[in-house]
């Protein structure tokens, strides 16, 4: 707790030029609120991580602290298959994670997730950058109207149009395919809006200079605007990838039979409501595996991500 | 710094002709039927207060903006329909407009790559292999320009790592490297600090005389226009008021707005009166020169600060005022005097030794130098060719 008190105090320069820590109840209150908020956000993750380490009995009785005692327990499923009870003793953490990968083709799901999110993001950028450029830097009749339509589209929740979209895709015979997972998301109005706001801050001189140098408008988009927009693009990448990597709703609708096309969140269902009841250990291990790539990516890109959000990429 | 002459192989100097150019943005008319002949190899400055249309005129010339009416001709060829890059002009922007993600060398290479290489030769890895000689020659051209501008050590840096002056040079280099038929400059010095700006003025003027290329330079700073240009066009409210050499414009402004805009400190404008004989009276004095009696009535008399001098004591030919401010420039002193109600302020140039004993609040007498006053009618136009000085013929032609 000493850390908390240190941050809750204000650093001040005293007259003899030394840093002293001074108690400030205002700052303390602020930090107290922030700490409570952080705990509420982190608690589900704590439970997820903790359950992924524990044996079923520890989960049921809620004992064992964070990582459990790691005492071997008997795997009933293994016994059922006719093995001797001694051979079926397993360590909880190993059992949970191997089951996660073994019982469901989790690697396949992760691969699907990567393909789908990467394709979605790639096509979104392909469409959003030219749109944003036209909205921010070109003058044409109806531009303000189109931009207001973009803003309007930001207000439409995806769930409202899910059914028409599904019907459309099924009439085209595209359900149960990567296309069904990717196509509905390729035009991101949020992406267009975000990039347009960023492009507004790029000086017109830069574009004029590129025109004088002989670039056409598309060359300007990909060779001048894209490189300067990397921070904003990264911010958009996080929004887009997080949303579609974690999406459970849409894959659940359009992927009806083929397990080969499941995305990681669908993989969680494998451990839900089996005949032998819920299997929380492997399920939480799966969840941990699913969120890890995102958290790692965020930590790596954290600084540029915040740069992009504040749209201060260029002077 | 020494600029070697550009190689004669591609010595291209363009005459540029603008005919009846007009431009409106919505309901706002920015340019009113501008006619402008830019001669080959001259340094022409478009100068005027912000919003006078000078930048728009330059952008129309560059091909970045379309005129509503009128014609742009480069070397006699109409280029209205030619896109900016194909007019072979180079532009230097106020914000330098360097590509932030490319190094200095890549920035300077860009216009050459786009002009001289096919798309296949521009490919990242295959390009240099396909056309080794071409790439080598482009690199050589960039290095040559960098050497002239003394920015060779910076070639591998990104613009973000450069100071303002260095970025300015790189922007200049990017313009020079393509050996354009004319350089267009849109207030290129206004982002530099004062000392560097003064230094760059002389460098640009030198660069112009060494390259021998046509320069079209836009600025709101009358000092830049006076120091660098061969000719300058004073623009206001979408019109060119006067086009002439800096000296002619300074000495013989054709319009009161030109007189007030050019020259620092500002010209003194005194209210005067013309009687039925054409005699001019101003501040209680009657001037020796006369104007045509057709100008009867109110008139404005312009006197530059250097056309006034301190007088020893009061006489019929002196104006009396209270010293309110001493503007000390070291070599010169400008004395700001408060005169009577209908005259207002008067600025007088004095040598430091003459004004050494004067303090703010003192009573000061000034007299005018004979034959230097210039007159403007009620409409702001110049009046009285009778009093024009030696190069009055030039000015008269310019006005006509």
TrEMBL record, chain A:
Q: Which residues form the ABC transmembrane type-1 domain?
A: 110-301
Record's keyword terms, sorted:
Cell membrane, Membrane, Transmembrane, Transmembrane helix, Transport
The compartments listed are: Cell membrane
**Source organism superkingdom:** Bacteria
Q: What is its main location?
A: membrane
Q: Which InterPro entries does the record match to this protein? A: MetI-like, MetI-like_sf
Q: How does it sit in the membrane?
A: Multi-pass membrane protein
- Determine if Membrane is one of this entry's keywords: yes
Locate the transmembrane regions by residue number. Answer: 32-53, 109-133, 145-166, 178-199, 220-242, 280-301
**Similarity comment: family membership:** Belongs to the binding-protein-dependent transport system permease family.
* Identification of the protein by name: Carbohydrate ABC transporter permease
Q: Which organism is it from?
A: Hoeflea poritis
């Amino acid at each position: 707790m000493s850390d908390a008190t240190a941050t809750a105090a204000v650093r001040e320069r005293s007259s003899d030029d030394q840093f002293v820590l001074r108690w400030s109840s205002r700052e303390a209150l602020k930090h107290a609120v922030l700490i409570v908020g952080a705990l509420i956000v982190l608690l589900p993750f704590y439970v997820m991580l903790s359950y992924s380490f524990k044996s079923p009995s520890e989960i049921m009785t809620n004992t064992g602290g964070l990582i459990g005692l790691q005492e071997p327990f008997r795997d009933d499923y293994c016994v059922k298959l006719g093995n001797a009870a001694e051979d079926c003793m397993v360590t909880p953490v190993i059992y949970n994670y191997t089951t996660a990968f073994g019982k469901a083709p989790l690697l396949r799901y992760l691969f699907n997730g990567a393909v789908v999110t990467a394709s979605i993001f790639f096509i979104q950028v392909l469409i959003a950058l030219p749109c944003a450029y036209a909205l921010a830097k070109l003058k044409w009749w109806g531009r303000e109207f189109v931009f207001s339509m973009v803003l309007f589209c930001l207000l439409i929740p995806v769930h409202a149009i899910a059914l028409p979209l599904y019907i459309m895709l099924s009439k085209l015979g595209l359900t149960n395919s990567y296309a069904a997972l990717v196509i509905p998301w390729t035009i991101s109005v949020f992406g267009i809006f975000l990039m347009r706001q960023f492009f507004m801050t790029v000086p017109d001189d830069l574009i004029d200079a590129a025109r004088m140098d002989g670039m056409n408008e598309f060359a300007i988009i990909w060779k001048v605007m894209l490189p300067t927009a990397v921070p904003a693009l990264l911010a958009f990448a996080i929004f887009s990838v997080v949303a579609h990597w974690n999406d459970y709703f849409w894959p659940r609708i359009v992927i009806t039979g083929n397990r080969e096309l499941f995305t990681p969140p669908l993989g969680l269902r494998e451990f839900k409501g089996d005949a032998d009841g819920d299997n929380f250990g492997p399920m939480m291990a799966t969840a941990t595996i699913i969120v890890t790539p995102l958290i790692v990516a965020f930590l790596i890109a954290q600084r540029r991500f915040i740069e992009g959000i504040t749209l201060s990429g260029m002077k | 710094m020494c600029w070697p002459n550009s190689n004669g192989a591609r010595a291209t100097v363009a005459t540029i002709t603008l005919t009846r150019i007009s431009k409106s943005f919505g309901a706002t008319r920015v340019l009113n039927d501008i006619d402008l002949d830019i001669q080959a190899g001259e340094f022409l400055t478009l100068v005027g207060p912000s919003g006078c249309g000078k930048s728009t005129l330059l952008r129309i010339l560059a091909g970045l903006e379309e005129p509503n009416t009128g014609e742009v001709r480069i070397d006699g060829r109409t280029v209205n329909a030619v896109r900016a890059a194909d007019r072979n002009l180079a532009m230097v922007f106020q914000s330098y407009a360097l590509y932030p993600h490319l190094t200095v060398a890549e920035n300077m290479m860009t216009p050459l790559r786009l002009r001289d290489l096919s798309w296949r030769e521009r490919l990242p890895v295959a390009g240099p292999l396909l056309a080794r000689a071409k790439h080598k020659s482009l690199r050589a051209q960039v290095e040559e320009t960098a050497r002239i501008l003394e920015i060779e050590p910076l070639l591998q840096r990104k613009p973000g790592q450069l100071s303002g002056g260095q970025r300015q040079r790189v922007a200049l280099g990017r313009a020079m490297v393509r050996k354009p038929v004319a350089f267009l400059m849109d207030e290129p010095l206004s982002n530099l600090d004062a000392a560097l700006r003064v230094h760059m003025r002389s460098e640009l003027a030198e660069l112009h005389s060494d390259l021998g290329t046509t320069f079209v330079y836009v600025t709101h700073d009358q000092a830049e226009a006076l120091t660098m240009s061969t000719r300058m066009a004073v623009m206001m409210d979408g019109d060119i008021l006067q086009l002439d050499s800096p000296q002619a414009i300074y000495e013989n402004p054709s319009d009161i707005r030109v007189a007030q805009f050019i020259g620092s400190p500002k010209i003194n404008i005194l209210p005067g009166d013309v009687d039925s004989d054409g005699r001019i009276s101003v501040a209680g004095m009657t001037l020796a020169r006369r104007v045509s009696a057709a100008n009867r009535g109110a008139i404005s008399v312009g006197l530059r600060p250097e056309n006034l001098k301190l007088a020893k004591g009061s006489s019929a030919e002196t104006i009396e005022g209270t010293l309110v401010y001493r503007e000390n420039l070291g070599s010169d002193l400008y004395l700001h005097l408060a005169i009577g109600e209908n005259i207002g302020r008067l600025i007088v140039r004095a040598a430091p030794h003459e004004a050494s004993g004067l303090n703010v609040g003192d009573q000061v007498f000034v007299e005018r130098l004979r034959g230097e006053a210039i007159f403007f009618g009620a409409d702001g136009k110049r009046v009285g060719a009778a009093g024009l000085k030696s190069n009055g013929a030039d000015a008269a032609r310019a006005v006509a």
